[in-house]
Design the sequence.
């Protein structure tokens, strides 16, 4: 029984940026920066990136059989 390390970092960063880019494209011309960055509201760009990361992370941990094995 050995130890394996799988790096997800690059894939997750790309997914995060894709979610943010998608949200940026949907912004109206005029907006309140406080609503779209860090507000934790539906309009928060960062939450869109985070949501994409969660989906991919679940897929990868299931694919590689690492789900629930942290610790």
Sequence:
């Amino acid at each position: 029984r050995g130890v394996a390390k799988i790096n997800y970092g690059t894939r997750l960063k790309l997914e995060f940026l894709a979610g943010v880019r998608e949200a940026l494209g949907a912004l109206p011309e005029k907006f309140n920066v406080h609503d779209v960055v860090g507000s934790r509201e539906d309009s928060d760009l960062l939450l869109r990136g985070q949501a994409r990361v969660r989906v991919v992370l679940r897929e990868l941990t299931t694919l590689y059989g690492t789900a629930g094995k942290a610790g």
User: Anything to note?
Assistant: The chain has a mean pLDDT of 89. Residues 45-63 form the longest helix (19 residues). The two ends are 16 Å apart (CA to CA). The helical segments are 9-25, 33-36, 45-63.
